[in-house]
Every structure is written in structure tokens, then in C-alpha cells.
Amino acid sequence: MNASIDPDEITERKPTKGEVPFYRENGQAVPRGIKGLFRNLKWWASGILLAWWHLGAFLRWDRGEGAPDQAILIDMAGRRAYFFNIEIWPQEVYYVTGLLLIAAISLFLMSALAGRIWCGFLCWQTVYTDLFQNIERWIIGERTARIKFQREPASAGKFVKQAMVVGSWAIISAACGIGVTLWFGDAFQMLGDIFTLNAPLAAYVFIGVIGGFCFLLGGFARERVCVYMCPYSRFQAAMFDEHSLIVSYEAWRGEPRAPAPKDRKFEGRGHCVDCKMCVQVCPTGVDIRFGNQLACIGCGLCIDACDQIMDKFGLPKGLISYDSAVNLTAREDGKPVPGIKPIRARTLLYGGLLAIVGGLMLTSLLTRSTTEVNVLHERAPLFVELSDGSVRNGYNYKVLNMVREDRSYVLKTEGLAGATLEMVGGASDVAELELPVEKDQVGNFRIFVNAPAESLAGRSNDLIFVLVEKGKDGKPIRSKTLFAGPDK
Ligand code: SF4
Ligand code: SF4
Question: Would you tell me which of 81, 128, 163, 242 could form a disulfide with 88, CB atoms 3.0–4.6 Å apart?
């Protein structure tokens, strides 16, 4: 891979007339390889994310006997999600809402601080597109070779290389699909099942869908996803302010641009030598010299390219830089550069929201009950008048035992003097009912409450079910519900 830039190539560069455009309407950007700080950051970010994506499901976490030992698991069959020592039941789907909120606010904060850092380094579309483009580079060659390759007539050699590229994309896409699937079952078991064709059909369909999207979006749609499909690129600018870091070209220093002078003297002209290296390395085909644009994902590769050019000509780096509008303006005006200002109203707002949502979720997780109750009043009939003059209402009472040991609960009522309880298939005419619930299960109980007519105020009365764990001093769970009666 030839990633460094030869200055002779720049000075001898012919005008770009007739050159294959860096972006073709019916094709893709053909970015040139580059080395530098931002390229290294991209490798590191991609490496960490891909490792996490593909290997994270193999992390283990001991939850005791009978419980899955996968650290992060979305158990669809068991209707449960596990995240280390946190276990989320379907009833607690609000935690997912909380996580989505945290993700959205983090994205806002990230954008306010460092522009499109998400798009340029962390987004899956960027990671896989970058990987696929580099595979093309490793197999076919640098940008010029790839453009030439595209123009070549069909041949056996071309077919073999193309097959190697597409085959590599397909293998990586399949690995992506498998990687995602492994989060939904025991990773070791599922991996074996997938390769021995013993996995359920749904797993292969899932791998096909995820892998297919990875293949199409990363291999073919590429920058079009960022430019035309992704909603975030449309509104991310709303989260920037004059202190947000963005990739910018210092036109005041670069213009008037002109081809590199043979004598390497830059008096009376701009520092931009119009080599278009910044454009050639750009994965979305942007010419940042036209100003900040929607298609710029903030990857910084044009900075690496331009810094190399500036170095070759002994000019100060930073003609293209990752800086705030305030700093850029100060430099242009020859004033002291104020520097990065991470603490400001916007970031404090996002940071505060993040702390509030995170704090609420943490408090809720730390104080959450291991028992949940659901009460449903029977509607048909709403009530029955018994021969002794009392009134009966029926209820479906559900107790969710969220721990891995059998538990017994005691249920009683409040609000209606003299009310008694009866359980279908159990005790009757008692003040307290005992409800056994197996470990990790939901106990379903059909219960009748009989109340003396004189304890009722009218058609609608308040009844409170009170549930406590037998023999424990825990906080009672109170559920207020309706007790219907005849008109008075
Ligand atoms: S901005 Fe830098 S990399 Fe881009 S054309 Fe000018 S000198 Fe070349
Ligand atoms: S213009 Fe520069 S920062 Fe923006 S996408 Fe292109 S290479 Fe990346």
C-alpha cells in the first residue's frame, strides 16, 4: 500500500481535466490511502469496535446455577435481557427507553464537543465501509490502480481480483451477521450450531438479513448512506456552536490557490498547491475547500493528507484542521487563539441531562423490587351480590418473582372493613391468602374479594391489595384497584 505522498507527484501533477472524477454519479468515491494521526485513530476505533462486536458475546458472567453465564445476552425465548449483573424483564422495557435516551443525549454531547466524531470514527457504516475500501486497496491497489481497474475490459485476471474483493466482503458481512446473532443465545453453543447447520432457521435468516445489509451498505451504498440516507447528517449541525470542533479549510491562508511553485516560494499566493490530495483521500468525495458540508463525516483524513503536503513544502501544518470556528476566526484575524472550550451552556445542558437520566436509571436499578405485581379487575360480571348480602368482586392477581429461589407471599386487603379473600382452588373466607411463586416465574392467581354491603360507599369503591413476602420485613407492595358494588 502506497499511503505516503511523493512531492514530485504533486509538482508534476497534470491539470485535473479528464481525470476520472473522485465521485461519479453512478459509482463510488475511490479514496486514496493515507497515513497520519487521524488514520491511526480510525484504525484504533475500528479495531476496538469490531473486536467488541464480534467477541463481546463470548464474555462470561457467573449468575449462579440455572442462569445463563453470558455477560451480555438478549434471551428472546426466556424473555429476558442480561447485562452483567443486571437482569431486565419484559415488564421493565422502560430501561431500554432510558438507554436509548442516554445514547441520544451522548450523541448530542459528542457532537457539541467534537463535531461529527461519531460519523467519522464510531458509526458502523463508517467502520465497515472503511474496511471494505481498504480490502479493495490491499487486493487491487491504490486509488489510481483501482480507477484503472474499473476501466479495464473484462478479463480472467480482473474477474479473479473482483471475486477476491467481493468474497472478502461477503466473509466479513457473514461474520457481522453471526456476531450480532451470538448476542441472542449462548455464543459458544450457537457458534457450533451455526457451523454444523444445527441452528434454528431463524438464526440463518437473521444472519442473512444483517450480513446482507452489511454487504450492501458497506460494499456498494457506502458514502451514499451518509449523504442521502442517514437522518443524523441532516440535523447534526443544529447541535454545533462556534466552539464545536469541525474539520475546516483555512481559506484565508490557502487562497489564492495555485499549483506548487517549482522554486517552492509562496510569497504573494496561498499555501494550497491545489494537489487535491485532501479530496482524493476523502471517503465521501468531499472537497473541504468549498467549506463545511453535509457530506463531510469529520474523519480528518484530509487533515492527514494536507499536513503531509504542508510538511513537504516546509509550510506550517493545519491548512485543514480540526478546530472550532472561534479559533479559526481568531487565527484569520491574527488574534490570540482562545483554544478549546469544552465547558459551555450547550455542553452543560447535555451533560446535565445525561447525568439526570443516568442517575434516575441507576437509582431505579439499585432500588428496584425483586417482586412485581399486576392486578386486573374482572369485568364480567363487575360484581355479584351473594345470598348473605355481601358483594363479591373477582380479580386476576399476578406476582412476578424475579429471584432464583421459590418464595411465598402473604396477600391481604385494605380499604374495605370486613372484607375476606378467596382463591380459586385454595383457601376461602380468610383475611390473608398465602401465594407461593416458584423461582424466576410469574404466579397467576384468580382471587375473589367478598365485602359486607355496609362497607361499600356506592358503585365505585377503593380496594388496596397488600402483598408482603412471608417471614420477611420487606416493604409491602400496595396495589390500588376498583371494588364495584350496587347503587346506594
Ligand atoms: S488543501 Fe492541502 S491537500 Fe487540499 S489541495 Fe490544497 S494543499 Fe492539497
Ligand atoms: S472532508 Fe475531510 S474530514 Fe470530511 S469526510 Fe472528507 S476526508 Fe473526512
Answer: 81
Between the CA of 139 and the centroid of ligand 1 the distance, in Å, is 28
Number of domains in the chain: 3
The residue range of the domain holding 283 is 239-332
CA distances from 223 to 73, 106, 126 (A): 32, 24, 8
284 in the same domain as 198: no
Q: What is the value of pTM for the model shown?
A: 0.80
Please check whether residue 238 is in contact with residue 311, taking contact to mean a CB–CB distance below 8 angstroms: no
Q: Write out residues with Cβ below 6 Å of ligand 1.
A: 249, 254, 272-278, 289, 305-306, 309, 319-320
Cα of 223 from ligand 2 centre, angstroms: 11
pLDDT in tens, 315-370: 999 999 999 999 999 999 999 999 889 999 999 999 999 999 999 999 998 888 88
Mutate to test the pocket of ligand 1, among 6, 19, 253, 306 (most ligand atoms within 8 A of CB): 306
Query: Quick check: is 1 in a domain?
Result: no
Q: What is the pLDDT of residues 201-250, one digit of tens each?
A: 999 999 999 999 999 999 998 888 888 888 887 877 788 888 999 999 99
Which of 207, 238, 269 marks a domain boundary? Answer: 238
Residue 461 C-alpha from the chain's centroid:
47
